[in-house]
Amino acid sequence: LFYEARLRAAELLRESGRTSEAIQQVEIAAHAAGHDLERKLETAMALSLIDEKRGDAAMAVRRLETLRTKHPDHLPLTLTLALIEERRGAWRRALDLVEGLLKKKPGAVELLNFWGFVASDHGHDLAMARKRLQSAAARDPGSSAILDSLGWVSFRAGELDRASLFLEQAIRLTPDDPEILTHLGDLYSKRAETERAVFAYRKAIEQNPDERLRRRLEESLSRLESHRAAGR
Hints:
Blueprint: H1 2-15, H2 19-33, H3 37-53, H4 57-70, H5 75-87, H6 91-102, H7 109-121, H8 126-139, H9 144-156, H10 160-173, H11 178-190, H12 194-206, H13 211-229
Helix pairs in contact: 1-2, 1-3, 2-3, 3-4, 3-5, 4-5, 5-6, 6-7, 7-8, 7-9, 8-9, 9-10, 9-11, 10-11, 11-12, 11-13, 12-13
C-alpha cells in the first residue's frame, strides 16, 4: 500500500503542477519497489508523465523509448508512449506504435480503443476505426470509454443520431467524465442546440480536466457565446 500511495500522491501533485514534489514521491516509490520489474516500469512511466507536464515531452519520449527496447511488448508502456506522442502532435506515430502491438495482441481492448479513438479524432480511416471500436465493445460492452469512442467515430462520420445514441449511453454510465461531456457539447453545438452545448461544456470544465482539454472547452464556449451574442 505504501508504494501505491506514493504513486497516487505523485499523480495528484503532477496534475496540480507541483512537479518537483511529484518527482520526490516517485523516487520514494521507486525505492520501495525494490527489484520488482513491473513497479520499476510504473515509476518510469510516472516520471515520463511528469516530464511531459514540465513541458519536456521529448524527454518523456526518450525515457520510454529506451525502456521499450528492452520491453517491446509491454502494453502500458507502449500506451503511455503513444499517448504522449499523440498529445505532442505526433498522432500518426502514436497509431503506428499501437498498430505494432496490436499485431501481437489483437484482442487487447485498450489498444483497440486507443487506435479507434485517435484515428477518429484525426479523421483517419474511419471505417477501420469503427471496426476496431466495435471489436473493443464486443469484449467490454459496459465500458463508457468505448461507448464514447463509438459516439465520436459516428460524430466524425457525420452520423449525428448514431453519435447521440452512444454518447448518451456513455454519459449515463459516467456522468462527470469531462471527455464525454465535451463530445456531447460538440454534438449539441453541431445540432445548433446552443444552451445544451454550453451546459455540457461548463460542466466539463467543472470536472477539472487536463490543460489541453480545458483550453479546447474554453475556446468552444467562447465561440458559442459569441454566436449567441450575435443572435446566431
